[in-house]
């Protein structure tokens, strides 16, 4: 209810600024709603797995588990980056909508929706293509849970205990039941692939029809994906590539293009292996990395991953450097317009001034990703600790 | 800020982490050392100043012989004489003098146009410094009755392509032409007439005779705005609707055959490379003819140092003028500054006796002069108000300075006057000829510098050290406070590394990353309040017939009311309530977040306007670092603690912007005749010049002061 009030008040305040073009505004609202629904889904799974792991004390205490969906939606809506991107009539809310739609669909295990979101997101900005790994994991394993090993361990403990009463047998059954989603189920994945091919053919045909007179699909690819991949536009943005490619010698250009884009791809596989039990978090990490290394980043991308970060507020509560990151984000987002002004309008600064803030921003993003991943792994370890103690005690 | 670096496993942290832990654990000592070093470096800046040099090779100042001769001087005399005779006539209205100047110009074969402008009233636009100056000029509210008239003459360069221009500006009051103004017009005219004949000119010359009836700055600014923003027919029709066209042009054109060259439209040359504002004052100097240079534009922006170098070089080495820049007079007779200068001098001697290669000592007198100049340089940059009409040019990225030539004696003697005109004319000719050699814009030398004398400067790389040392202690102290706040609470921090703590316990504690969120909320609220306070004057301005004192009182009342209202709306209470156990250490977190906010604000300001940030840091850093609940200190009855209480109260008093303003004003100008309204008038002047300093005071300094006071009176 409170959330709806917030929506309402926000709607009034922002729609005034967006005269005549409310589509990005509505996209943001829908984004927040979808994030909230995803968050509720994730939270249910979280409490369930905690119960299974016998952290009953934790899961039953009211107020200890923060409603992460609401938090994430609020973070997304009230984030100054979101507001700036929305007021600036950037298209990133729509791209974000496609990404969030696919995540939501995968969380709800609705293959057509997930496939639609993924195809549209890829079509719009190409980089979400890497989200196919978390999509498959989500559809195959289900939403984020503690590592599978823990459940096995838990079951071993229970079985080894050999209790006389049947309450524990019940528990065992529960544990057994909990195993079911942890077996990789191929059916939704195959559905997903079918739907993906269907949607992509659909989108391609539509595109082909509409750009027929302008040189066909190949021209479209060259002008859109080619433009993104070859970093032709070197006008300054909050990323780091424009400066680099303005400086680099032309004959090294192709090499570095491959290196920079390969960078994203190199990180995919190790992360996927380590975080395969938490596909949503994996998606967040992918989005953060790609928004850091993409060719034309904008604050709208940051708004998306900061919003998604709110989904894991329970798990990441012990994150280190949170205050430092917060100050850093505030400082950089204030400093970079000033530096831009100094360089472009007043002429007293130069490109290095602005690029310094872009580098600081990239560093902040790296720290955010590293710290959030390590906090998540720590959280998993913490969940394992009572189990190992229990086991040790018995042995 | 490595606030949680202390938590890394004890095994063998990396050196950088160990360094961080070391700094945080000795934050008190570190901050004292840093602050002292920062203040000392600031005091050392006059010693560290370097001699200026001309950085751009293409300029070649003074390489050509001056062509300015007595013939031009006689022309200047002719114009001055007719201007003064015009002035003595009773009917001499403004238009007469403009027509006269236009006549003289057209005799030289220059293109002439008039530029009519309407003065704008002072408006409240604090965010203006951030935008391009053109914005918002269409919805100006002009008063149709009063208008000024600039006269513009343009010489097309025989060797140029018309893409670049040099501007000469002579402001004068068209209603009453003073002797100094007439002389400045004479000098400009003589140079102008010389430039019509020369063959080396590669840039067009624009001579703007600015009508300073409504202020010199307004006239120049209006002309520049129209120069850079072409007015198309639609808009001009609109303007015509607003103001019935009083046909000035027709008035001016009548019964004059020579003025066939006058154009109705707005004449333009290319982009402006440089602008020189020429002024003449007389009879104030004791020793010799002198030249004062004014360079500060809005928000502490300076023209390229090369421009000042050229003028300084030509004035000193070619024309034998004494060059001055503004000084803070009250500092010259300052006792402690003299003593400090002598100490530095003797230190320099000692160093020289140890090793003749070390030459950093400067004479005590030079030191005091340098410090006074530096102080005034800092002050005028910090104020953000341009020191002359040259400030209007900087908004369009044009380097400009005001040259104020003043003579030793009153210029009644004819030969003396001719000599003065000759030297002034040669100086300006030399500067123009040098700038004429310029291949592109001034870019070689510094834009960010402070002057300690006309031939000495402190570059950004040096003066940033003083500031960086001052603020370096802020993040360290913030980090140590943050770490403290977590360590003190027994439930976490240290026990993380101990394996005995059960997992459920660890999970059930409130997440520590969220602890600072409350403090951050409070800080955010106060900064929001600061924004509200800084925008309140916009509404107070609208109240008609309000004396500064009443406006100030209204402002203070509204501000103090708006804080509780805001906290009520946003649901964060400022009343302390009963301090429960965990709340007792709340102030450390609050102080930590406050210090971080102050750090961000100061860094931001140092980029926008360094001088403001430096002065602000001098006031704010000690206040932020010292702030500690008074109750704690009073409870333990020790002398040291009482000293700290006294320090805190004094700093808290000084930190309050009006109090600080009155104390500083009293210290420099004496306490006589200070009224409460002074502060309001001062702020009004700052915001009407759209200075970023105003925003800094409202949105960084004031909130930090409120938070520090909040910490001071924290119950614990």
From TrEMBL, chain A:
Q: Name one GO cellular component term.
A: GPI-anchor transamidase complex
Q: Which family does it belong to?
A: Belongs to the PIGU family.
Broad class of the protein's primary localization: endoplasmic reticulum
Please, which domain of life does this record's source organism belong to?
Eukaryota
Pathway assignment reads: Glycolipid biosynthesis; glycosylphosphatidylinositol-anchor biosynthesis
Q: Keyword Endoplasmic reticulum on this protein? A: yes
Q: How does it sit in the membrane?
A: Multi-pass membrane protein
* Protein name, UniProt field: Phosphatidylinositol glycan anchor biosynthesis class U protein-like
Which PANTHER family does this entry report, sorted A to Z?
GPI TRANSAMIDASE COMPONENT PIG-U, PHOSPHATIDYLINOSITOL GLYCAN ANCHOR BIOSYNTHESIS CLASS U PROTEIN
Q: Membrane spanning segments where?
A: 81-104, 116-141, 189-211, 223-245, 251-273, 280-299, 319-339, 351-370
Entry keyword set: Endoplasmic reticulum, GPI-anchor biosynthesis, Membrane, Transmembrane, Transmembrane helix
Subcellular location(s): the record lists: Endoplasmic reticulum membrane
**An example Gene Ontology biological process:** GPI anchor biosynthetic process
Q: Which InterPro entries match?
A: PIG-U
Automatic annotation (TrEMBL), chain B:
In terms of Pfam families, this protein maps to:
Gaa1
Write down any Gene Ontology CC term: GPI-anchor transamidase complex
Q: Which UniProt keywords apply?
A: Membrane, Transmembrane, Transmembrane helix
Q: Where are the transmembrane segments?
A: 21-45, 460-483, 523-540, 552-576, 588-607, 613-630, 642-664, 693-713
Instruction: Provide the protein name.
Output: Glycosylphosphatidylinositol anchor attachment 1 protein
